[in-house]
Specification:
It holds the Pfam family MATH. This protein is mainly beta. The protein has five helices and 17 strands.
């Protein structure tokens, strides 16, 4: 692919598609997004779309290109270049390919082995103002370029963010057969009601605090990021755990922080974690929501 990249670097493409994704960090939760459909008039009026895929299990970032239903030839061979643009417009993570596309055919390219490179370590470079910019350049093989087109598209991602402090009163009186429950009501974004349950479990003579997250009324699947933090009475974080999970139509239980804390350590006289016998848990959720809008700009 490196040879293809150097060969194409000085060539004028038949078609360029630049896709700007606002609230780009939400891709860590939604993990998959399709661009608006675009028509490459200079490539036999064929129709295409791009997809961004942030693989959950493998921590990678992929870009896909797919030919859509159109009135063009049954198959068409193109060379293409997919890349992420940095804040100054320079290209990074570029990958190239050459493929024969029948209608509905999709080609999959790994852009970054580790998605954290884009979303965390080099965030200022790739997500200025939380905006990710993807570029696709296309050449039809075996043809002379009579005209070059550029299309721009923009998508604004939605994300249901919820953050609150859950105060568990009279914590020392909690017994293994009891549960403390907190309900997080649905929002206009459409994500379901969440049910937080705190309870004790026993292992090897020790009692542990567990936090279970369930849901009540999901109408579809949602990807979710969750972080729970134990706070000192002055607001400092003492311990935190995070997880990624899926809210399912068919299961009430979403995830659990098993043995989040040992109860005896909380009850220690030297501990400042139970001021007035109250336990403070900060709960943060990011839940997938539909894009606010997605459109071609020119």
């Amino acid at each position: 692919m490196g040879a293809e990249a150097s060969k194409n670097s000085g060539r004028k493409p038949n078609f360029t598609f630049i896709w700007t994704i606002e609230n780009g960090s939400a891709l860590l939760v939604s993990r998959y997004l399709e661009s608006p459909q675009f028509i490459a008039h200079s490539i036999a009026k064929t129709k295409w779309k791009l997809m961004v895929n942030t693989e959950f299990r493998h921590e990678t970032l992929h870009l896909d290109i797919q030919r859509e239903e159109d009135s063009g030839p049954d198959t068409i061979e193109i060379e293409f270049e997919l890349s992420i643009l940095s804040d100054n417009g320079s290209v990074s993570g570029m990958q190239t390919g050459k493929e024969t596309f029948p209608i509905s055919h999709c080609f999959h390219l790994k852009i970054f082995e580790d998605r954290h490179e884009v979303f965390f370590r080099r965030r200022a470079e790739f997500l200025p103002n939380d905006t990710l910019t993807v570029r696709c350049r296309m050449w039809r093989t075996g043809t002379e370029i009579s005209r070059s087109e550029t299309w721009f598209a923009r998508t604004r991602l939605g994300l249901d963010r919820r953050c609150f402090v859950w105060v568990i009163k009279e914590f020392s009186s909690l017994r293994p057969e009891q549960k403390r429950t907190h309900f997080v009501n649905p929002t206009p974004h459409g994500s379901p009601q969440l049910i937080l349950s705190l309870f004790l479990s026993e292992r090897n003579g020790k009692n542990y605090v567990n936090i279970e997250i369930g849901q009540n009324d999901a109408t579809r699947y949602y990807n979710m990021f969750c972080k729970c933090s134990l706070l000192e009475s002055d607001g400092r974080v003492v311990h935190s755990e995070k997880t990624e999970s899926v809210i399912s139509l068919h299961f009430r239980k979403v995830c659990i922080f098993q043995e989040f804390l040992e109860k005896d350590k909380l009850m220690n006289k030297e501990s400042s974690l139970l001021l007035n016998d109250e336990l403070y848990l900060r709960c943060e959720f990011q839940i997938e929501a539909d894009p606010v809008w997605s459109r071609i700009e020119n």
